[in-house]
Predict the 3D structure of the following.
Amino acid sequence: MILDNVDNAEAARAALAAVYDDPAVTELRVYTLGDGEAMSGLLVAGRRGSEATFLVFLLD
């Protein structure tokens, strides 16, 4: 869903992997968002030590 409509999907996958597929990431959560009708999406949250990275992807 996130990588379906990008010009360079391999570069996008590599960027996501660099952020979230890392041994330093101690916690990773993926949540679905939206009401199932008008809006839907994903929230990806990763924790690395005391820092957190969030990716929010919404479709309307």
Remarks:
- The radius of gyration is 13 Å.
- The longest helix spans residues 9-20.
- The longest strand covers residues 40-48.
- The CA atoms of residues 42 and 48 lie 20 Å apart.
